[in-house]
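Hey, sorry to bother you again with one of my protein questions. I've been staring at a protein lately and its backbone has me curious. I owe you a coffee for this, so here goes:
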Amino acid sequence: QAEPRAPRFDASSRRHGVARRMPTRLFCKILSQNDLVAVILEGLDYLRRLAGRRSFLWRAARTIAEHPHPISEEDRAQLERLPGLAGEPRRIVEEILATGSAAEYERRLAG
């Protein structure tokens, strides 16, 4: 569930045109692959919670951030074996690896 102040911040940010999270274009070229994936997953988890949805993407973000090796082509087959990366989180991670972002993250930022 979102933090108690999150609904007020969300409403205020919409009213004043303040970003709720940083757009991917501001950080995509300066982060390592794992950090990029973790930041987008954490941001998407936060935005889902702001919208009142349950989200467990923070688990996948933590797993990726703590993974000792880059999540590369060789690692993708093993993603589902890592904690928090089965099903939907794995699909989102694969989308980020393929495109540098996640469509849902970008939609929620714009919305």
The chain has a mean pLDDT of 80. The longest helix spans residues 33-50. The chain has six helices and no strands.
